[in-house]
Every structure is written in structure tokens, then in C-alpha cells.
Design goal:
The chain has about 160 residues and is of the alpha/beta class. The chain is built from four helices and six strands, in the order E-E-E-E-H-E-H-E-H-H. It has a single domain, classed as Nucleotidyltransferase, domain 5 (2-Layer Sandwich). It has a six-stranded mixed β-sheet with strand order 1-4-3-2-5-6. Strand 3 and strand 4 form a beta hairpin.
Length: about 160
């Protein structure tokens, strides 16, 4: 049985990120944290990154352990995978099933299928360029949601008496 709260291996650094401007959080279904080479439902790990127009940073790697024969048709495995994507705008993978697509979209997470051999590095480079002048609809929506959350957070702090 897969735990509902997966263990995340987080990357901590002494410095605060140097990224500026809008930020996206995205995940990649990967066997080696280099190539996007796994099916969403049977992924052995997700590598999660924050991406700005001028940089990106690895935030965490979430491993998944699956029993033999747990590859297809087991809806229970999706809960842990989806829980690991909290805060992500998108997940990049080789393939993704219809049920997973519906559940991800309901949570505002865009599933994105990539061609075989697509690397995480190339995808991060694309996203950095895209953040300068977004054209992909899912990125535009994710940035709009982020701005709305920021406005709501600042309004809440103001109502609690927070000051600069």
C-alpha cells in the first residue's frame, strides 16, 4: 500500500533563491532526475522545481515505491502521486491516464505529455523563456492564480494589522 503522504527529499540551501519576477512550481515524472521518462501513474519519482525567468531551482525529489504488478488499473496509487504535487502548476510526464488527467485538472494542475528523450534541463529552459512573455494558456492561468493568492494573502495580513 502506498502512503497517502509521500516522503519528500527536500533540497535546502543556505541562501535564498536569486530568482526574480513570477515563479512557477512544476514537477517531472523521472527515473533519474535528468530525463522526463515515466508514466504519471507508475512514476518512481517526481522532481519538483521552482522556475523564474532568470533561474530555476530543484526543490524536492519525491520517491514512490510500487509493488510488482501495480502498474496498470490501480486507482489507489494516484492519491499519493497527486498529493506530492501540492503547489505545482504542472506535471510533465511520458504518458498519463484519463482518470489522472481529470483529477489533476480539478486541482488546477496541468498534466503535460512530452516526447521520448525530453530532458528536464531543456524543459526548464523553455519555461524560463516562457515566463518572460507567457503564451501557453496553462502558464497564463497559473500566474493569474498566483497573483490572486498573493493579493488575498496581503489583504489578510493588512486586516490582521501587519505593517511593512
Amino acid at each position: 500500500m502506498i502512503p497517502s503522504n509521500p516522503v519528500r527529499l527536500a533540497v535546502y540551501e543556505e541562501h535564498v533563491s536569486t530568482g526574480t519576477g513570477p515563479v512557477l512550481c512544476v514537477a517531472f515524472a523521472t527515473s533519474d532526475v535528468s530525463v522526463i521518462d515515466e508514466h504519471f501513474g507508475s512514476a518512481t519519482r517526481f522532481a519538483t522545481y521552482r522556475v523564474w525567468a532568470d533561474t530555476d531551482e530543484l526543490v524536492s525529489v519525491t520517491p514512490f515505491h510500487q509493488a510488482e504488478g501495480e502498474h496498470d488499473g490501480n486507482e489507489g496509487k494516484l492519491a499519493a502521486k497527486i498529493a506530492a504535487l501540492e503547489g505545482c502548476a504542472a506535471v510533465f510526464c511520458q504518458a498519463v491516464g484519463g482518470s489522472a488527467i481529470r483529477q489533476l485538472l480539478a486541482l488546477g494542475i496541468q498534466p503535460i505529455k512530452v516526447e521520448a528523450g525530453t530532458t528536464i534541463g531543456a524543459t526548464l529552459a523553455f519555461l524560463r523563456v516562457e515566463l518572460i512573455r507567457p503564451t501557453a494558456a496553462w502558464i497564463v492561468k497559473a500566474l493569474a492564480r498566483s497573483e490572486q493568492q498573493d493579493v488575498g494573502r496581503f489583504d489578510m495580513m493588512a486586516s490582521e494589522g501587519w505593517e511593512e
